[in-house]
Amino acid sequence: MAKKSSTQQFVPIQEIRDGVLILKDGKMCTVLLASSVNFSLKSSVEQQAILSQFQSFLNMIDFSVQFYIQSRRMDIRPYLDMLATREEHQYNDLLRIQLREYIEFIRAFTSEVDIMTKNFFVVIPYTPAAVDVSGIAEILSTKKETDPIRFQEDKSQLEQRVTVVEQGLARVGVRTVSLGTDELVELFYHIYNPDETNKAPKR
Q: Would you give the DSSP letter of residue 16?
């Protein structure tokens, strides 16, 4: 009987260290959480300026980036619990009735319609020179620990790319923040476990 493959064999991540993804092929990635821009509310002049700045940003970088949009169902239960607490402490009968009706409306509405929240991410990769020129990806994929000195050198190169992307997107009006190790663990936990959105990953 053939041995069943572990799920981890299909996950391209070797480890997460200091907010950096180290993939099994030796590549390193930083993930930025990006804000959104309400493009449709901008004037035609502002829209043209945004498009021009974004085009300049894409033409400026000499490496690839990946834009990832994550849609997740919003857990409305904490909000309903907060409203229920307010109802208990509401001494005005009319306001208490209105609050109770509002809670029931929200509960009924969300049972029929999924309330989604969207997060925007930018993935910035960097391939260490040794992996690129000598093809030692297989060695890195089986190596349990990465050389600390080499890691810091490669991370410095990756951070230079991150700075370029942050500055370029800032000109478009997009704010960014780098995900730390815990945030990355949570992000990929929910990506590979979509049915357990409301559960916290094990550390």
A: E
The pTM assigned to this predicted structure is 0.71
When divided into structural domains, the chain yields a total of 2
Which helix (H) or strand (E) segment holds residue 80: the answer is helix 77-88
pLDDT of 36-71, one tens digit each? Answer: 888 889 999 999 999 999 999 999 999 999 999 988
150: closest CA among 35, 28, 11?
28
Structure-block tokens of residue 52: 């021009």
Query: Beta strands of 18-75 (E only): which ranges?
Result: 20-23, 28-34, 66-73
Please check whether residue 159 lies inside any domain of the structure: yes
Sign (positive or negative) of CA dihedral 150, 140, 16, 19: positive
Predicted pLDDT of residue 73: 79
Residues 59, 124 share a domain? yes
Q: Are residues 100 and 51 in the same domain?
A: no
Could you tell me if 32 and 42 are in contact, meaning their C-beta atoms sit under 8 angstroms apart?
Answer: no
Domain-located, residue 1: no
Range of the domain at 59: 7-73+117-194
